[in-house]
Write a structure and sequence with these properties.
Length: 543
């Protein structure tokens, strides 16, 4: 018998060809494909089969496009190594689902466990296929999976062995691994997403997982094509505590919190720093953002100025605070004279955008401009001389002095004048986010000036960003681009105009912005199909 991977590869190629052929014969077309992120994959499996199912395997990395990893999921394919990993994970999941411990949860049991049973197999695969593909299986798709199950069940004289391979074929197919968005003609040469693609986009945005049965039913009935039906489902999704999961995924991406995976600190200079503090710092920022955005339904501008946060023992040690609280995580408010002002002064942002042994006004400033103002800084030329900046033991004692000397080079000045003032106002914190007032015995100057506006320190920076309309517009732009898998730098202001207006009119409430965005009449618009997207399923399977 051919190997499991080879059998499934053949099936995937066949499935892709059938899908492409079916599309060519109908008015609907695949217009985009987005590879599931690791979190989306794990959440989807947990929702479809149960949280007890283990995911055993590795995921290929994503890249950041326009400040968001979500945008890269629309352009990344699967390498041969990645395909093998997805295949192995699919088999591992199928083995668990068809194992003796799980079988009681299946939709039916075979008449004889040593024989094939097409009726029961079809019932099980149809049920799971609808949830995995986020749409009902086509007749040919179901038939192919049932036939594979039957053939292998007969060869091994084991119904569940056959079911395992049929289920695994669905799990490693492009229709599950990729979020395929299908569009239909909407008149006047315009295209719009079909109901199942709308359900999928909504669910992954709101819950970071595949659509549940109720949302799929609404799609099947065509309710998502009406304002009333769409509004009903949006309200339901947003009322669920699972909205926290969706927005945690968004803020993780927007704030680049995945960067913690590569953060390291000099253990000799900073022996207190640990992986535990890094994980806690990431969680602190997420809790702060989610609490303000969803639980308090607060003004999102306050993310730049609030001193309210959440602490655990790890963070208390890093912030040099006594931890005398009960529970793992507790609400906490920094004192007015603490220098803390919004998430920019939390350990996450300060440590991610610093060097292992010292702070970096440039890295911090570039990050703020990119993440919060949607103004990315160009990469420096390859031949730039950084020796002055890196000479920490030279005559220039503070980083401000070294950067000013470096910026005398006209090639460097424009970029540094663009980002360094922001970073210099944060120099009151070292590379592990601890408060300081001096560098090499010299008092640190925290004054800054941007576009004629002068301010001092993190408090001044927080107020500057709080009152800057570019920050709120950037947040709306990133949310729109994230939800559609688009490069935020390519998104025109007109595309998220409705969402931004609702955001502003509501006093910058995240919930109002999300609701207006997904209920906008143009949100589910789609580009006209191209030859590449028409045959996307076949191309992906063959890579």
């Amino acid at each position: 018998m051919r190997s499991f991977a080879a059998s499934l590869l053949s099936l995937t190629l066949l499935s892709g060809a059938m899908i492409a052929g079916a599309e060519a014969a109908s008015s609907s077309q695949v217009v985009s494909m987005r590879r599931l992120t690791q979190a989306e994959y794990r959440n989807s499996i947990a929702d479809v089969f149960g949280k007890e199912i283990e995911i055993r395997g590795s995921f290929e990395p994503t890249i950041r496009v326009g400040g968001l990893q979500a945008a890269s999921t629309a352009v990344l394919s699967v390498t041969p190594v990645g395909f093998e990993s997805f295949t192995n994970m699919a088999d591992s999941i199928a083995v668990q689902v068809t194992g003796e411990k799980y079988r009681s949860k299946l939709a039916c049991a075979p008449k004889d466990t040593k024989e094939a049973d097409d009726a029961c197999t079809g019932q099980i695969l149809s049920h799971y296929g609808r949830l995995l593909y986020r749409r009902p299986l086509g007749k040919d798709e179901l038939k192919t999976a049932v036939n594979l199950s039957r053939d292998l069940a007969k060869k091994q004289k084991d119904f569940y062995a056959g079911l395992r391979y049929g289920l695994a074929s669905l799990l490693q197919a492009p229709d599950f691994v990729f979020r395929m968005e299908t569009a239909v003609p909407a008149g006047n040469k315009q295209w719009a997403l079909d109901p199942y693609s709308r359900a999928t986009r909504l669910s992954y945005l709101m819950w970071n997982s595949s659509p549940d049965a109720q949302l799929l039913e609404a799609a099947e009935k065509g309710e998502l094509n009406t304002a009333a039906g769409l509004g009903k489902q949006v309200d339901r999704l947003m009322a669920s505590p699972r909205l926290d999961s969706g927005m945690r995924a968004f803020f993780t991406d927007m704030l680049q919190l995945d960067t913690f995976d590569t953060v390291s600190k000099d253990s000799i200079l900073y022996p207190k720093w640990s992986s535990g503090i890094a994980a806690s710092a990431r969680e602190e920022t997420l809790r702060t953002a989610i609490d303000l955005a969803l639980h308090e339904n607060g003004d999102m501008r306050d993310l730049m100025t609030t001193r309210k946060t959440f602490l655990n023992r790890n963070l208390a040690a890093d912030y040099q605070l006594p931890f005398q609280f009960k529970g793992d995580w507790v609400p906490y408010e920094f004192a007015p004279d603490s220098g803390r002002s919004g998430i920019l002064t939390q350990a996450s942002m300060l440590t991610m955008f610093s060097h292992p042994g010292r702070s970096s006004p440039t890295k911090r400033g570039v990050a703020v401009m990119d993440i919060f103002l949607c103004e990315p800084t160009p990469a420096p030329p390859a031949n730039v001389d950084f020796s002055v900046v890196n000479d920490v033991n030279g005559a220039l004692k503070t980083v401000r002095e070294r950067l000013m000397a470096h910026a005398t080079n006209s090639t460097c000045a424009s970029c540094h004048n663009h980002s360094d003032p922001i970073g210099l106002s944060l120099e009151g914190f070292d590379t592990i986010a601890q408060r300081r007032t001096a560098e090499n015995g010299q008092l640190i100057d925290l004054s800054a000036s941007i576009q004629g506006k002068k301010f001092v320190g993190s408090d001044g920076l927080g107020k500057f960003l709080h009152d800057n309309p570019k920050y709120t517009s950037c947040l709306a732009r990133k949310a729109y681009a994230y939800s559609r898998g688009e490069n935020s730098e390519d998104v025109p202001a007109a595309a998220f105009k409705t969402a931004n207006k609702a955001f502003t009119d509501s006093g910058f409430r995240m919930r109002a912005m999300l609701k207006a965005m997904v209920e906008d009449k143009d949100y589910f618009s789609a580009p006209a199909p191209t030859p590449e997207t028409k045959n996307g399923a076949t191309k992906v399977a063959a890579q």
